[in-house]
Amino acid sequence: MTRPTIDVHAHVLLPAVESLVTGLPGHAEAKELDARRNGPAALAVSGPMVRERVPRLTDAAVRLAAMDAQGVDVQLVSPSPTHYHYWADEVSAEKLYRLANEATAAHCAKAPDRLRGLGLVPLQHPHHMVRALGHALEQGLAGVEISSHAPGRELSDPAYEPFWARAEETGAILFLHPFGCTLDERLDQWYLSNTVGQPTENAVALSHLIFSGVLDRHPGLRLIAAHGGGYLPTHIGRADHAWSARADAGAGCAHPPSSYLKRLYFDSLVHDPYVLRELVRVAGADRVLLGSDFPFDMGTEDPVGALRAARLPEADFHAVRGGNAAALLRKD
Predict the structure, then answer these.
(1) Helical segments of the chain, H only
(2) How far apart are CA 289 and CA 10, in angstroms?
(3) Does the global pTM surpass 0.85?
(4) Helix pair 40-58, 60-70: axis angle to 10 deg
(5) Which of 286, 137, 289, 160 is nearest to 218 (CA)?
(6) By its UniProt entry, which PANTHER family does this protein fall under (predicted)?
(7) Which of 162, 185, 209, 210 could lock 214 by a disulfide, CB 3.0 to 4.6 Å apart?
(8) pLDDT of res. 13
(9) Domain boundaries, the chain
(10) Which residues of the chain have pLDDT under 50?
């Protein structure tokens, strides 16, 4: 029997979340910051692109038809990162994550054998995150999606320790997907906000988790990094050198940084077969999962074809295509 093909990087759009936050204090300022970071040319392209994809992002039947066309059996569906809204106050943030979790669960319930979901937690309010994770799991979701940072907080912040501990204890899947890059207007042309910003944010966030010892304290975390982990896996040698050469770099984690790649999971969305081969080499074939960024234009319409282009050994190809994700989802 052929194992299912599982895409762990697919999104759902939740209009009710945007209706909830529209007009709240801080919403307009957040939109203005996002506009400055992306620049007018990117916004002019992104608006029509998203509108054209709304049916795939909101209608489960349309989603399933698109999955069939791609040869994908199962999607792990996470809210669009535009729904993070880490500017929201505590009351609004609780309403937001509850609505997002319930709406994502309802979307996936339309085809429970083919759609699994992830919820949201308020990264800007660490003391609410354990409760938010619990709410997501109560809805039948497999875990939650988080960004690379919240305003004023990196993922190495000690305030997140209870969340990491609870995620490890429950076996929840954590999907690390950045939204917005703090390089701001330096990346406001040519869509650098995404092409450079996303892999940069991935690398920074993962480095905080590694160098601070979060992965030493919580070795059972099941964290998937979007976009193949960004720049970090292919430049991990520099991190290893710093760890061994400098007392300050090596003070927070017990082992060379490269060793922690084998404790993380990565999606396959790197847009280059040679980079994908390198990701499999440094992380292990059992730590890479198929990802498409469905249905956005920075994803791939043919995730299985992109994986096959890497010309991995057949066993590794099938592990990435679905075997690894199937094992991960069976444990949640």
Answers:
(1) 15-21, 27-38, 40-58, 60-70, 90-108, 129-138, 161-170, 192-195, 197-211, 214-217, 236-245, 273-283, 303-308, 314-318, 324-331
(2) 12
(3) yes
(4) 100
(5) 160
(6) 2-AMINO-3-CARBOXYLMUCONATE-6-SEMIALDEHYDE DECARBOXYLASE (PTHR21240), ISO-OROTATE DECARBOXYLASE (EUROFUNG) (PTHR21240:SF28)
(7) 209
(8) 98
(9) 6-331
(10) none
pLDDT number for residue 318: 97
Residues 6+ away with beta carbon under 8 Å from 115? 60, 63, 74, 75, 77, 107, 108
Q: Are 80 and 13 in contact (CB under 8 A)?
A: yes
At residue 49, the pLDDT reads 95
Q: Containing H/E element for 265?
A: strand 265-267
Any idea how long the chain is?
Answer: 332
| CATH 2.50.20.10 for the 6-331 domain, yes or no | no
Residue pair 193/38 in contact (Cβ under 8 Å)? The answer is yes
Q: What is the pLDDT of residues 47-92, one digit of tens each?
A: 999 999 999 999 999 999 999 999 999 999 999 999 999 999 999 9
